UniProtKB/TrEMBL annotation:
Superkingdom of the source species: Bacteria
Protein name per Swiss-Prot or TrEMBL: LysR family transcriptional regulator
InterPro entries: ArsR-like_HTH, LysR_HTH_N, LysR_subst-bd, WH-like_DNA-bd_sf, WH_DNA-bd_sf
Keywords from the named record: DNA-binding, Transcription, Transcription regulation
Domain annotation HTH lysR-type: ranges: 4-61
Family: Belongs to the LysR transcriptional regulatory family.
Spans annotated as Disordered: 313-332
Keyword Transcription regulation: yes
Lineage of the organism: Bacteria, Bacillati, Actinomycetota, Actinomycetes, Kitasatosporales
Species for this entry: Streptomyces catenulae
C-alpha cells in the first residue's frame, strides 16, 4: 500500500492552488528547495511522478491530479473529524451509556435525554435497564458510563472504583382503594395503616424498602399479596385487595412532576405526613471519568430533572399544606 503522507499531500494541494513552487513555499513558510524535496519524497512513496517540467516552471501530472481527487476527500473527512473532536472536547458530541433501574428511566433519564437532544443534538445517550447489582457490574466492566440506583444498593462514597452523586430523595406515597375508610383521612400517617393488608414484592429492593418504612413507623406489615410489577400492584389495590407504598417516580404520568392524588381508576394516592418515608436515588460513574465533558453534560441534565421533580409540590388529599419541601441535590 502506498504511503499517503498528509503533510506532503497538503503541500501538493497548495502547489495546485497557487501554481508555483515559490508561492507555495511562501504560503507554507518553507524554502523552495524544501517544497521540492517534500514533493519528490511523496512521488517516491506513491510510486508515480507528480511533477513535470513546463518551460521554466513545473506542472502537475495526470497522476498528481488523481492523487488530489482522493486527497480532497481525505481532507474533508479530517475537517469533519476535527469538528467532531472539538464537539467532544466541549461535551457537545460523543456517546454516553446509562444503566438505570426501571422507574428512573421514565422519571429521570427520558426527560434528561429529551433536553439533551434539544440542547446538544450531537451527544448520543444509550439507555439500558438494569437493577443495581447488574448496573454496577456493567459500570465496572466499562459497558455503561453511568449507573442510576437507589442509595441503599449503591457503592459507598468511599469505594475507590466509583464516584457517587446524590440525585433525588423520592417520597413514598400510599396507594389505597378508592372506597377505603382512610382514603380521605386528614393528616394520614403510615402508622395509621398498621392493621391493613399490604402488597409488595416477596424479595428484592422494594420488599426491603416497604418493610423498613413500616418498621420505622412502628409496625411490621402483613403481606397479603406479593407483586413487583406496578400494573399488578395498581390492579390489586383498585380491587380492594390491600394497600401499597408507591414511590412518586412510579406514579402514572411520571414524565411530569406528580400532582394531585389520583393513582388510576379505583386507586387513591395519599401523601403521608409525619412519618413519610423516602428512597434516595444516586448516580455513579467510574472514579475519574465524571469530569469527561459528555458525561458531565448528562449528569447536569439528570440533576436538572431531579431538581424540577423535587421542587414540584404535591397537593395532599385533605387539602392541607404539602408536607415535604424540595430535597437538596448534592455530591455524595
Amino acid at each position: 500500500m502506498a504511503d499517503w503522507d498528509i503533510k506532503k499531500l497538503r503541500i501538493l494541494r497548495t502547489l495546485h492552488e497557487l501554481g508555483t513552487v515559490t508561492a507555495t513555499a511562501e504560503a507554507l513558510h518553507l524554502t523552495p528547495s524544501a517544497v521540492s524535496q517534500q514533493l519528490a519524497g511523496l512521488a517516491k512513496a506513491l510510486g508515480v511522478p507528480l511533477l513535470e517540467a513546463h518551460g521554466r516552471r513545473v506542472r502537475l501530472t495526470d497522476a498528481a491530479h488523481l492523487v488530489l481527487r482522493h486527497a480532497d476527500v481525505v481532507f474533508a473527512q479530517l475537517e469533519r473529524a476535527d469538528a467532531e473532536l472539538l464537539g467532544y472536547l466541549r461535551g457537545e458530541a460523543g456517546r454516553v451509556r446509562i444503566g438505570a433501574f426501571s422507574t428512573a428511566i421514565p422519571a429521570l433519564v427520558v426527560p434528561a435525554v429529551q433536553e439533551l437532544r434539544r440542547t446538544h443534538p450531537g451527544l448520543a445517550v444509550a439507555v439500558r435497564e438494569a437493577e443495581a447489582e447488574a448496573a454496577y457490574e456493567l459500570l465496572a466492566e466499562g459497558s455503561v458510563d453511568l449507573a442510576l440506583s437507589l442509595a441503599a444498593h449503591a457503592p459507598t462514597p468511599r469505594d475507590p472504583k466509583f464516584s457517587r452523586l446524590s440525585l433525588l430523595a423520592d417520597p413514598l406515597d400510599v396507594a389505597l382503594p378508592a372506597g377505603h375508610p382512610l382514603a380521605a383521612e386528614p393528616g394520614l400517617r403510615l402508622a395509621d395503616l398498621a392493621g391493613e393488608p399490604w402488597i409488595f414484592g416477596s424479595s428484592g429492593p422494594w420488599s426491603q424498602i416497604t418493610t423498613a418504612a413500616c418498621e420505622n413507623a412502628g409496625f411490621v406489615p402483613e403481606q397479603a399479596h406479593a407483586a413487583a410489577d406496578w400494573n399488578a400492584i395498581w390492579a390489586m389495590v383498585a380491587a380492594g385487595m390491600g394497600v401499597a407504598l408507591v414511590p412518586r417516580m412510579a406514579r402514572p404520568g411520571v414524565g411530569a412532576p406528580a400532582r394531585g392524588t389520583g393513582g388510576g381508576p379505583g386507586v387513591v394516592l395519599r401523601v403521608l405526613h409525619a412519618d413519610q418515608p423516602r428512597r434516595h436515588v444516586v448516580a455513579a460513574a467510574r472514579r475519574g471519568s465524571e469530569g469527561a465533558p459528555g458525561l458531565s453534560r448528562v449528569l447536569a441534565a439528570l440533576q436538572q430533572v431531579a431538581a424540577a421533580r423535587a421542587g414540584a409540590r404535591t397537593v395532599p388529599a385533605d387539602g392541607g399544606a404539602p408536607p415535604d419541601g424540595p430535597p437538596t441535590v448534592q455530591s455524595a
